[in-house]
Amino acid sequence: MRGGQRSVLLLLVLIVVAIALALLRNTGAGSAVEGAVLAALAPVRSALTSAASGATAALADAQRFNELRTENEALRAEVAHLRSAAAGVQATRRENEALRAALDYERESREFTLLTAQVAGRDSVDMLDTLIIDRGAADGVQVGMAVLAGGSLAGRVQSVTPTSANILPLLSGPSAVNAVAQGDDGEADGIVESDENRGLRLTRIEPDAPLAIGNLVVTSGLGGGFPRGLAIGRVIAVFTSPESVFREAAIEPFVRVERLSVVQVVIGRAPGPS
């Protein structure tokens, strides 16, 4: 028999006994019988009292559990909100630091006239992963202009609107730049292209050109695309192939497009002293 059913049965027994005692109370034997019955039922009354107390405590515990669960859910929501707010503050701080550094570099640049712009979005149409910046033709931006990040080449302007521009990253497939690897023994001309692993290679290097790991790779200025001397990266490996007379070099780029929040467009060369 379950605990709840047992308690109900005991309660019915007590009710019946109470009625019997009330009927006997006016007789001579009523008092004696009442005393004996009450003594016999004392453990039952105690059990019922304990059961009632236990039920009350269980209800209180259940109510407290629900309160604690509600408080826990509220605390979890508050922690998630605080984490989100902290991440937003950190992102804003990094963007502000990048913007200050870019503006300082723009002011200190004596070779080029630079225009600082913020990355407003990204576009993956045709798998080019172009960047969208918040400066356009109204600010002097033109198709083909070089785009820098931290003083190193990041890409080129692909298209322009009056208030924005799309930037084709150097690491994007169709991008190619005339470049030169500079070392203590001389320079090696070639073309910087992206490879299938989203890295950079310096291709079409003459077999006898001086080339070594650690050489700095910069734009050569040939072809009229970019001015000479824009840093691209460093040589990290050199390859030869029996199928070609040219050599190739793997390049570790100085700029990673996925981390950019601020860039600079090379508007032109800085005016020389008059």
Observed structural traits:
274 residues, alpha+beta, 6-stranded antiparallel barrel, 2 helices
**Percent of sequence in beta strands:** 25-35%
Radius of gyration, in angstroms, nearest whole number? 42 Å
The overall pLDDT, averaged over residues, is 77
* Most strands sheet: 6 strands, antiparallel, barrel
Number of helices: 2
Query: How would you spell out the order of helices and strands?
Result: HHEEEEEEEEEEEE
Structural class: alpha+beta
Uncertain stretches of 5 or more adjacent residues: 102-107
The number of E-state strands comes to 12
C-alpha termini separation: 108 Å
Shape: elongated
Please bin the fraction of helical residues: 25-40%
Strand order of the largest sheet: 1-2-5-4-3-12
